[in-house]
Specification:
The chain is of the alpha+beta class and about 210 residues long. It contains four helices and eight strands, in the order ββββββββαααα. The strands form two sheets. A five-stranded mixed sheet has the order 2-8-7-4-5, with helices on one face. Strands 1-3-6 form a three-stranded antiparallel sheet, with helices on one face. A hairpin with a 5-residue loop joins β4 and β5 (about 80-90).
Length: about 210
C-alpha cells in the first residue's frame, strides 16, 4: 500500500465550532477535564468547508469520555433548516465514532456545489441545552476532473485514501481509512497511515484514539 502523501490543507479561517471547549461541563466529562481532548470533528482544523464526493457521506468525530448518555447529530440546509436530525445513545467511552447519512429514509443526497452545515452535540443535561458540548462544520459535495475520478475508480481500496488526500478530499480519505482499519485492526501499515493523515490535518492529539461504537 502506497503511503499517503502529506498534503497540507488550504489555510483559511478556522470554523468557530470545530472543537468544543469543556470548561463549563462539570459532571459531563469524565477524568481530568484539563487533560482531556475536546469533542472534535475530524476535519482539517483550518478549513472552513470540507469537500466530499459522497452523495451520503460519513462523518467522523472524537468523543471524550463522558457521563452523558445521548448525542444529537443535525445536518442543515443552506438556510440553517434541519434536513436530518438523529438522537442516539452513546457508550461514554472516549474515542472516534462514525455517523453515516442514511439512504433508506426520505433524505435527498447532497447536491453538488451546495454547502451544508452540520453539528454534533453531546447532551450533558437534557434540561439545559446550553450545557451541551457541540462541534460542527460545513460540507460540500464536489465533482472531480474525469481523470481523477477514473484514477479513484480503478484504484485498489487500499490506494484510494492516498488519492483522496492528494485531491484534498480529507473526509473521504479518513472515511476510507477508518473502514479499512475497522476491517483490519491489527494492520500496522494502516495504523501508520491513519496517524500520519490525522497529523497532517492538525489532529495529532487524537491520532491514537480508539474507534468506539456510539
Amino acid at each position: 500500500m502506497a503511503p499517503i502523501k502529506t498534503v497540507s490543507p488550504a489555510r483559511a479561517n478556522p470554523l468557530p465550532v470545530q472543537t468544543a471547549q469543556i470548561e463549563d461541563t462539570e459532571g459531563c466529562i469524565l477524568g481530568d477535564r484539563e487533560a482531556q481532548q475536546p469533542l472534535t470533528a475530524l476535519i482539517p482544523t483550518e478549513e472552513r468547508v470540507i469537500s466530499t464526493l459522497a452523495r451520503y457521506p460519513t462523518f467522523l468525530f472524537y468523543l471524550p469520555p463522558t457521563a452523558a448518555e445521548r448525542a444529537e447529530f443535525i445536518l442543515y440546509d443552506d438556510r440553517r433548516q434541519p434536513l436530518y436530525k438523529v438522537v442516539f445513545v452513546i457508550s461514554g467511552e472516549g474515542g472516534i465514532i462514525s455517523l453515516n447519512l442514511p439512504t433508506r429514509i426520505n433524505l435527498q443526497p447532497l447536491e453538488i456545489g451546495q454547502r451544508y452545515p452540520f453539528s454534533l452535540s453531546v447532551i450533558c443535561d437534557p434540561s439545559a441545552p446550553d450545557r451541551n458540548l457541540t462541534v460542527g462544520g460545513r460540507i460540500e459535495r464536489i465533482e472531480l476532473p474525469e481523470r481523477v475520478k477514473m484514477e479513484i475508480e480503478n484504484a485498489l481500496l487500499g490506494d484510494r485514501p492516498r488519492i483522496y488526500a492528494e485531491a484534498g478530499l480529507w473526509l473521504d480519505a479518513l472515511t476510507q481509512l477508518a473502514a479499512l482499519r475497522r476491517a483490519n485492526p491489527n494492520d500496522p501499515a494502516l495504523l501508520r497511515e491513519w496517524e500520519s493523515t490525522l497529523n497532517a490535518l492538525g489532529l495529532e492529539p487524537i491520532a491514537q484514539a480508539p474507534f468506539v461504537n456510539p
